[in-house]
């Protein structure tokens, strides 16, 4: 290495984890544009929740370092090249996916303040403000916490141990890729930004998938990596939309309608492969039963909780009931996937529907078994909208272990959405 | 990377494999000094022999490239720093291991010409000249052929495949190291120069052993790596001494005596841990039976062919017969070792004798199963003294599959050394 490079490297006060506002999931930007148009003035609070209590984040991560990373993110704004890419690139086959008014707003955006407090061995990290602004904190906040936790563990390891660690991680990932490449026609995208081991590692994982699967690797949810590596940016929408719409409902009737209002707004904006239903926010079964007919015309469904095979069977039955041919429909699996499950689900449903996978944490952060005491194993960290205009949000999902919100509100939602008995399943990551 | 580094890297006409005259095994230099004193004018021919006929070296390796590498080696001479190290360093606890007259000669040495010819799919590569000069070709010639074969395979692999390849190789080696580190008191040295995957890889393997085994990693046979990494240089003597001494014998009586003449010369020069018997050149059993009593006083025995446990038992019985306590004696295993065998042998003999290991090819070149078609698997390449002053050399060893020399000479040697039935064993590497 030359001296200048070395000196330059040592000049950094911190080693920033998130260095770009588009180091985020593509669906965040799609949703942000939708929110910017439809509900720009909603006041929303996002909150970081570590579901894995035995990972004592506040003991592992120095508060000062965490603040430096978050402050660095607040200093970021869209670069000219990033803006050009968002404005000029084709996403899902469509030019000018992002409207001029949204882009102008985004070009002038800096992320709003955060609130950080240590409570016991965990951090309380919340973001409160106008929905389109605070929602953009979710992914970078998660990525920062995940990577700082990783760094805390890596800090104690020697140069050689680190070499071996990454050699093992590479070997492990490549073994997965080699298994997946044996399944012709399989289609997988990277959904692993939020709980990645680190940015560089996610970038390597994307390269591995591209190298191993070629065109069967359909792209990455990470906009920065998609831009840098000239890949498709992948993603549609998430639970945050129905959760906030639902929280804003003034009565039970509006509440029951809220998830469909979300998709009605989406229907106006998007077509084709962007018309993907995420049906599980308040129970897949009931959502589909009460869905308006125009929703059956949408391209596909994303299955993000509950038993995935069951979810797919429910979807197939629903399409048939509504006179649609499931073979034209897309089922995207995105919950707790690893290569075995991917291959099983593919074999089970390929041909009956079009199958696709959004592979997350076990693509970009499978360090299980690689560090002493398994201290690099991924853990279940989420960052969710917890209130909207003063009302708490609720998520039920198809797995009661993933439910969130105040107990009385959960009960109300269960009643309104007619959610019966649900099977509890361990949350993998 | 900075521009200057990149430009510099592209300026090399070749990427030299051997860049130093001390990128060789330590025992070569010890033997060279002994030969330089005792038999300097012997005319010896060394010849490269590929025992693995299905590795078509001449199809894999371009003759021009091979010549460039060999020519580069001929351009090398001892650097000032290397000379200082050899003169000033302590080897086996001894200062000034290398005498001034030898060092002066070595400082002025350039390696003699080589003879290279393609015969079918193999190369005939021979070195003829004064013994102390030509003997120094053995290790670099082997290393060049091994690494050029590796490069031929690597040339067809992409950047990513290469990353995964080395990640896997590192993972594989580290798994071995982790198994070995669980055995307290085990003592292992690197003997893997000659059939290493590459210089850089050997250097990494040495670091891995050091990192994993700490002081239980006793050193490396490679002088350059020992110098660069401040490790012990390890090694004593090899078959080439008795083979050449035997070839120079004028009659059967002298022949029978030749292996002991070698050790008598060695006895004069060295003591302590350098007094290691290599008994298998013409059969261990007979060699020990007829050995003079002073040889039983030597420190240990290196077991380099045949069944290693049997060899060690033979040695133990011999020491006991000669009134020596085997627990004071050193047994060095150095043939076809991998971690399982190392651990087995250690458990079997630790406490009964002092046990040590010289781990070669499967330390520095275990790329088995790592490349398509297993084209990086190590293969059995040797470079041996084949004649001395016009007489063919013979090696029998304790494994008839390792025997070499003209058939009638093999028969004569078997008769003179009273070698009975031997068990044939596959040569691992």
Automatic annotation (TrEMBL), chains A, B:
Pathway: Cofactor biosynthesis; NAD(+) biosynthesis; nicotinate D-ribonucleotide from nicotinate: step 1/1
EC number of the protein: 6.3.4.21
Top enzyme class: ligase
Boundaries of every Nicotinate phosphoribosyltransferase N-terminal domain copy: 22-145
GO process annotations (BP): NAD+ biosynthetic process via the salvage pathway
GO MF term list: glycosyltransferase activity; nicotinate phosphoribosyltransferase activity
Protein name per UniProt: Nicotinate phosphoribosyltransferase
Organism this protein belongs to: Sagittula stellata (strain ATCC 700073 / DSM 11524 / E-37)
Gene expressing this chain: pncB
């Amino acid at each position: 290495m030359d001296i200048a490079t070395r000196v330059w490297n040592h000049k950094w006060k911190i080693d920033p984890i998130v260095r770009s506002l588009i180091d985020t999931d593509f669906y965040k930007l799609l949703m942000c544009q939708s929110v910017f148009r439809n509900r720009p003035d909603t006041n929303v609070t996002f909150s970081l929740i570590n579901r894995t209590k035995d990972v004592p984040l506040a003991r592992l991560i120095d508060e000062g370092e965490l603040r430096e990373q978050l402050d660095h993110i607040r200093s970021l704004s869209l670069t000219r090249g990033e803006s050009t890419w968002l404005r000029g690139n084709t996403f899902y086959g469509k030019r000018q996916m992002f409207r001029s008014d949204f882009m102008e707003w985004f070009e002038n955006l800096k992320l709003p303040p955060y609130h950080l407090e240590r409570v016991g061995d965990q951090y309380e990290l919340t973001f409160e403000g106008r929905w389109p602004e605070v929602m953009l904190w979710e992914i970078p906040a998660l990525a920062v916490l995940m990577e700082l936790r990783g760094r805390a563990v890596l800090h104690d390891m020697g140069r050689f141990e680190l070499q071996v660690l990454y050699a093992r991680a590479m070997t492990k990932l490549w073994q997965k890729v080699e298994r997946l490449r044996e399944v012709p026609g399989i289609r997988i995208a990277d959904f692993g930004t939020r709980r990645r081991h680190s940015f560089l590692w996610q970038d390597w994982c994307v390269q591995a998938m591209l190298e191993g699967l070629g065109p069967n690797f359909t792209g990455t949810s990470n906009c920065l990596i998609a831009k840098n590596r000239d890949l498709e940016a992948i993603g549609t929408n998430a639970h945050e939309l129905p959760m906030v719409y639902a929280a804003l409902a003034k009565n039970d009737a509006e509440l029951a309608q809220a998830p469909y209002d979300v998709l009605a707004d989406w229907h106006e904006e998007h077509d084709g492969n962007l018309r993907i239903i995420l049906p599980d926010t308040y129970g897949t079964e009931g959502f589909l039963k009460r869905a308006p007919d125009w929703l059956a015309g949408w391209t596909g469904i994303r299955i993000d909780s509950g038993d995935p095979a069951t979810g797919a069977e429910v979807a197939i039955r629903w399409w048939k009931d509504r006179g649609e041919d499931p073979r034209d429909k897309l089922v995207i699996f995105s919950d707790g996937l690893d290569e075995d499950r991917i291959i099983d689900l593919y074999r089970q449903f390929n041909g009956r529907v079009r199958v696709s996978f959004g592979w997350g944490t076990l693509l970009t952060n499978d360090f299980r078994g690689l560090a002493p005491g398994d201290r690099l194993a991924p853990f279940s960290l989420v960052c969710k909208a917890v209130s909207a205009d003063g009302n708490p949000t609720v998520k039920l999902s198809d797995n009661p272990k993933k439910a969130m919100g105040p107990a009385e509100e959960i009960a109300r939602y269960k009643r309104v959405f007619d959610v019966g008995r649900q099977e509890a399943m361990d949350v993998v990551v």
